[in-house]
Automatic annotation (TrEMBL):
It is an enzyme of class 2 (transferase). GO terms for biological process: NAD+ metabolic process; NADP+ biosynthetic process. Keywords: ATP-binding, Cytoplasm, Kinase, NAD, NADP, Nucleotide-binding, Transferase. Its main location: cytoplasm. Belongs to the NAD kinase family. Pfam families: NAD_kinase, NAD_kinase_C. This is NAD kinase. It comes from Salipiger aestuarii. Its EC number is 2.7.1.23.
């Protein structure tokens, strides 16, 4: 029986052109009745698609019609059903962020790649870091800090000189961004089950924003982050080009 494929695409002209051609060739099904969702775009669109469809429990197969495409497969309009049938699946648990704002409001969000805190003004941020309720770093003076999943460890985390984590690693990467004090503190590796709290010191003088996969919250005073095991993102990759292989390969370029 043919696979029931649901297609979606970013607004980029190249992605829209691919969408038109693929739907003519393979048809198009509703996402809630599909066997697989094929997302056409770049990594940002892939993250958006995973967040948008997380309640469906349908695997998502990305084809790159963007730029980097780390979470995507190479684009081709040939033998798509065969590629989907032989694809390897990786399961990703996102991070859960609860951000407390200066005005007393609370904002919740999920992040597949990372949760980051960044300064919003001309002065460096001052952060205190708690792990599982214990104060581990009383003061980090920096441009920011982030907590990344293995899937997100090659994104902002890697640009901030954080470690690349194997996809099966039961750890999270805690990484500083342009740390001033302690000057040589680069971060830490934490168990996947750890709960991390960033406390913003001098928050009125040194405002800070929190961001979970591009969902931004300004003027935060405290941010709690933990892995969310109840949410499972199913991502498909061509054989031999899965996420684990990409994470290893990235360390040798």
């Amino acid at each position: 029986m043919p696979l029931k494929i649901a297609f979606c695409a970013s607004n980029a002209p190249i992605a829209q052109a691919a969408l038109a051609g693929l739907t003519r060739r393979y048809g198009d099904h509703a996402e809630d009745g599909a066997d697989v969702i094929v997302a056409l775009g770049g990594d940002g669109f892939m993250l958006h698609t995973l967040h948008r469809t997380q309640e469906l429990a349908v695997p998502v197969y990305g084809m790159n019609r963007g730029t980097v495409g780390f979470l995507m497969n190479a684009y081709s309009d040939h033998a798509l059903e065969e590629r989907l049938s032989s694809a390897e699946e990786a399961v990703i648990n996102p991070l859960s962020m609860r951000a407390h704002k200066l005005d007393g409001s609370i904002h919740d969000a999920l992040a597949i790649n990372e949760v980051s805190l960044l300064r919003c003004g001309p002065q460096a941020a001052r952060l205190a870091i708690h792990v599982d309720g214990k104060l581990r770093l009383p003061e980090l003076v920096c441009d920011g800090a982030l907590l990344a999943t293995p899937a997100g460890s090659t994104a902002y985390n890697y640009s901030a000189h954080g470690p690349i984590l194997p996809i099966g690693a039961e750890v999270l990467a805690l990484t500083s961004v342009a740390a001033f004090r302690p000057r040589r503190w680069r971060g830490a590796l934490l168990p996947k089950g750890a709960e991390v709290t960033f406390e913003v010191l001098e928050h009125e003088k040194r405002p800070v924003m929190a961001e979970a996969d591009s969902q931004s919250v300004r003027d935060v005073v405290r941010v709690h982050i933990r892995s969310e095991p109840t949410v499972r993102h199913r991502v498909l990759f061509d054989p031999g080009h899965g996420l684990e292989e990409r994470l290893i390969r990235e360390q040798f370029v």
